[in-house]
Specification:
It is a single chain. The chain is globular, with a radius of gyration of 24 Å. The protein has 18 helices and 31 strands. The strands form 10 sheets. The protein has a 7-stranded mixed sheet with strand order 5-4-17-16-18-19-20, with helices on both faces. The chain has a 5-stranded parallel sheet with strand order 7-6-8-11-12, with helices on both faces. It has a 4-stranded antiparallel sheet with strand order 23-24-25-26. Helix 3 runs parallel beside helix 10, helix 4 packs across helix 8 and helix 17 runs parallel beside helix 18. It is 31% helix and 24% strand. It folds into 2 domains: 399 residues, Rossmann fold (3-Layer(aba) Sandwich), CATH 3.40.50; 124 residues, GMP Synthetase, Chain A, domain 3 (2-Layer Sandwich). It binds coenzyme A and adenosine monophosphate. Adenosine monophosphate (AMP) binds next to strand 26.
């Protein structure tokens, strides 16, 4: 194997040869003689004439190759006091039978299926069963409210919806069925069937003729084989927050995805078949798709599916218990989880109770890894702590210290260098490349490597306007940052209206759309303010209608409830400030970027187009008051 520089150079200068070689690690029904279709920029297709099945690569081939008795998945659920080990053979058996059940409901190649499930093995079975049939799954995170689920139902138009009776969030029972029923009521699209997995602590009431019991249909079904699909056929749609209330449906293909994820396990995470890999995330997020489900299984690892939290289930030693008990080699989670542990166990008292002999490395992503958390984690673990940067859109890391290639010295605050395949540049407003240490738009030269988004579901035009029209020939990440003189990237935060709350991606625009419907609100803006635990929290600035009953406390309560009901509790919307007006340009555009800077105490340049500079003083005062409230 070569050095990082050699491998990186080959990936950029000879991408076809590079990815052709990587594709050898995957089983194909039909190998491609053409690696990249670049005939229709900015839409690129990897392995255009290959045929593959992702489920075959994740399960069948490992059983074929003698790994059948190896554990594929460890389900560890402190909230239900359960630990289960499922081998590759058992997983294959369940997936093949559940595929049979889905086929019995009419699900086939190209059909869409929504999966709204908690962190239970059945969520993984459902995803792989769709993949087996060539159906396209769309997993919706359980913390989203009915309204968000309804938006996704209407957009993805599923033939079947798969769900469970509920989950345990810490000590709280969350019943999913009422949320699902409400979402179906709100949506215009009608799914033919709902399949419900009943959990013992909460029962879903079933609607005759529509709802089916998972256990019943799985036990009655006959197993089915994998259906070959084109490498370019969609494997899944994953909705992610954009700048408006309508999320973006990122499309992932089958072939490029399998090739890239397999490559990433070896070269980024430095793991091999048989290693125990734990991504402490949720299957509803991209990290869960890629690194709980697909990548570890494609690689023949054992993946850990953890239904718990870093703290409170039952204590801040939860992660160390799981690592010790299951001999985890690599843990991947979000910095916010470490901040939560640090808050409750700053001296590492719980950490010292466990023996982490097999644990080699921690990877963090999902939000910026602040240097304080980095230093604390390093001192505690005495093992490499690797920050790496990626997005739902890319599906796998854009920048990382690639431990399987070369371990670079770490610069705190930086996810190290671009991963092979990603030609990352920093551009100024006019599209010129900036020199080292100058802040700008972080972009990636097209074509993106395999495994990244093929387009947006039924919205090629939105793909272009969101990602490729700002700078011709480049993918816009919507992150701001810079590269230093050694090529290390520093990703400083989003430059659009997307915020990161506890490693979860949310749209301030979506919250504004909800708040604006309050009868007393004339206009509003939501900005992300830095938070020491969750990274960012939303703050709503509202201007009330003249003559509205101005009970600010009641309005604040209403808005909290409205955002919880319509977006979900994970939006963590708690703070509203009533302001006399919002800062705007002379043409009436709200100055959100400037407000973001003010909210976080950063320097900003007075916009030359501002209508009235005193509005910025008012906003500064508002945020000062929120940060240091005067006692009532
Ligand atoms: N289903 C239903 N509700 C959910 C949920 C789910 N899957 N996940 C979170 N929620 C709810 C929580 O119960 C909470 O509700 P509340 O306001 O009624 O208390 C709310 O959404 C906010 O959740 P969260 O931001 O997770 O706060 P928390 O205080 O429960 O936990 C952390 C804080 C830091 C421990 C937690 O956010 C965490 O583990 N973060 C790591 C995130 C992560 O892994 N991200 C994936 C990217 S790698
Ligand atoms: P998501 O699509 O939910 O994965 O969120 C993607 C966004 O999270 C990115 O655009 C970044 O703003 C942020 N992000 C993820 N990982 C990192 C990281 N390591 N450093 C800085 N920001 C990150």
């Amino acid at each position: 194997m070569g050095s990082y520089d050699e491998i990186f150079r080959k990936s950029i200068e000879e991408p076809v040869a590079f990815w052709k070689e990587a594709a050898e690690a995957i089983d194909w029904y039909k190998k491609c003689d053409r690696i990249l279709d670049d005939s229709r920029p900015p839409f690129y297709r990897w392995f255009p004439n290959g045929e593959i099945n992702t489920c075959f690569n994740a399960l069948d081939r490992h059983v074929r190759d003698g790994l059948g008795d190896q554990v594929a998945l460890i389900y560890d659920s402190p909230v239900t006091n359960t630990v289960k080990h499922i081998t590759y053979r058992q997983m294959l058996d369940r997936v093949a039978r559940f595929s049979g059940a889905l086929r019995g409901l009419g699900v086939g190649k190209g059909d869409t299926v929504i999966i709204y499930m908690p962190m239970i093995p059945e969520a993984v079975v459902a995803m792989l069963a769709c993949a087996r049939l060539g159906a396209i799954h769309s997993v919706v995170f359980g913390g989203f409210a009915a309204n968000e689920l309804a938006l996704r139902i209407d957009h993805a138009k599923p033939k079947v919806i798969i769900s469970a009776s509920g989950s345990m969030e810490g000590k709280k029972v969350i019943a999913y069925k009422p949320l699902l029923d409400r979402a179906i009521e709100l949506a215009e699209h009608r799914a033919e069937r709902c399949v419900l997995f009943q959990r013992p602590f909460v029962e879903a009431s079933m609607i005759d003729g529509r709802d089916l019991d998972w256990q019943e249909i799985e036990s009655q079904a006959a197993p089915v084989d994998c259906v070959p699909v084109k490498a370019t056929d969609p494997l899944y749609i994953l909705y992610t927050s954009g700048t408006t209330g309508m999320p973006k449906g990122v499309i992932r293909d089958n072939g490029g995805h399998a090739v890239a994820l397999h490559w990433s396990m070896k070269y980024i995470y430095n793991v091999k078949a048989g290693d125990i890999f734990w991504a402490a995330s949720d299957v509803g997020w991209v990290v869960g798709h890629s690194y709980i489900v697909y990548a570890p299984l494609l690689m023949g690892c054992t993946t850990v599916l953890y239904e718990g939290k870093p703290v409170g289930t039952p204590d801040p030693g939860a992660f160390w218990r799981v690592i010790e008990q299951h001999k985890v080699k690599v843990l991947f989670t979000a910095p916010t989880a470490f901040r939560a542990i640090k808050k409750e166990d700053p001296e590492g008292v719980f950490f010292k109770k466990y023996h982490l002999d097999h644990f080699e490395c921690l990877f963090l992503a999902g939000e910026r890894l602040d240097p304080d958390t980095y230093h604390w984690a390093c001192a505690l673990l005495d093992r490499p702590v690797i920050d790496h940067w990626w997005q739902t859109e890319t599906g796998w890391p854009i920048a990382s210290n690639c431990l399987g290639i070369e371990h670079f010295p770490i610069k705190p605050g930086s996810p190290t260098k671009a991963v092979p395949g990603y030609d990352v540049k920093i551009l100024d407003n006019d599209g010129n490349e900036l020199p080292a240490n100058h802040d700008g738009d972080v972009v990636i030269k097209l074509p993106l490597p395999p495994g990244t988004l093929a387009s947006l579901w039924q919205a090629d035009d939105k793909f272009i306007s969101s990602y490729t029209s700002r700078f011709s020939g480049y993918y816009l990440t919507s992150d701001g940052g810079y590269k230093d003189e050694d090529g290390y990237l520093f990703i400083m935060g989003r430059i659009d209206d997307v915020i990161n709350i506890a490693g979860h991606r949310l749209s301030t625009g979506a919250m504004e759309e909800v708040i604006a419907t309050h009868p007393a609100v004339a206009e509003c803006a939501v900005v992300g303010a830095d938070d020491t635990l969750k990274g960012q929290l939303p703050v709503g600035l509202v201007v009330l209608k003249a003559g509205a009953v101005q009970d600010a406390e009641q309005i604040e309560k209403d808005l909290i409830q409205m955002v919880r009901n319509q977006i979900g509790p994970i939006a963590c919307y708690k703070t509203t400030a009533v302001v006399p007006r919002l800062p705007k340009t002379r043409s009436g555009k709200i100055l959100r970027g400037t407000m973001r800077a003010i909210a976080n105490g950063k320097d900003y340049r007075m916009p030359s187009t501002i209508d009235d500079p005193t509005t910025l003083e008012e906003i500064t005062e508002t945020f000062n008051h929120l940060r240091f409230p005067t006692k009532k």
